[in-house]
Hints:
Elements (H helix, E strand, L loop, with lengths): L11 H13 L1 E4 L5 H16 L6 E2 L11 H6 L3 E3 L6 H7 L2 H10 L4 E9 L8 E4 L13 E6 L10 E3 L12 E2 L11 E2 L10 E3 L6 E5 L4 E3 L11 E8 L29 E4 L16 E3 L15
Parallel strand pairs: 2-15
Antiparallel strand pairs: 1-11, 3-4, 3-15, 4-13, 4-14, 5-12, 6-11, 6-13, 7-10, 7-12, 8-9
The structure holds 2-oxoglutaric acid.
Amino acid sequence: MTSTLSFNQLTQKQQEIAEFYAQNGFYVYPDALTPEEVQGLRDETTRICAGDLGEVGGQSAGGRRKGESDDELLRRFLCIHFPHKISDIMFDALSHPAIVETLTACVSPNVKAMQSMLFIKASGKPGQAWHQDEDYIPTRDRSLVGAWIALDDATTQNGCLWIIPGSHKPGILWDQTWHGDKRFDCAWESQNFPYSDEDAVPVEVKAGTIVFFNGYTLHRSLPNHAKSGYRRALVNHYMSAESFLPWHPPRKDEPRDAKGMAKLDNRDIVMIAGQDPYAHHGLEDRVGPSVRPAGEGGCGTGQEYED
Length: 307
Ligand SMILES: O=C(O)CCC(=O)C(=O)O
């Protein structure tokens, strides 16, 4: 995926970002958020888990229990999907200037967001097995990007991301299978790709760093083995606004003449830069925030997750 902005219209820094990203399938942007912005997102995380901002659907939701401390509360959640649906702070974070600067260089002048995920990952919680995000959120032009905002220092001990550099290049979605491995949550694992664990690099970063990664880049995270604390990260997903987003099957009430398979387009999106060529299609509110199960009560062997 290349930007439709001419390369020369990008700043020197954007050109460097775009070149590194195209080559490696990821880019690490240090000090993207101020300590105050990071603290604001951490405080909001606690409010979301406590149910202060509204209902969060799914397993073990229900807000703060009587007498429960912040630590006891946070430990009950591995991850909350779509926090931007109930939090103004998380919504604003979708279009953080560092994200707009990076994505308008790497993706397109026109960028939309479709998902946010708030990982809390307290000590002892599992990681996510090898996967490519386009397994879950398909674009038509391979433009998907995850922006992984570190809210704590992420280390190999507390379960940082691991990335296989350059693994986006073949443009192949590797088959996935149920892993049955207790180190990971219930999402399936990519298999039979031509890389080994030795090809992966740990992405150890300080809080306030944003790690951008391509939707075809193989990545995983291991469990949080620290004695205490969390490895919080807000992960937002983006793509070019020029591409349709065939993320969910058509609903029964959707007219098939207007939305045949080729025209499937989830319009539960937020524009963060440029123009929306499909603005005339309107917007939808398809999903609310939900809790992602950590697999502690066991997993089915179906692909239960959006990412
Ligand atoms: O933060 C993590 O541990 C995993 C995140 C991830 O795999 C993703 O956002 O696709």
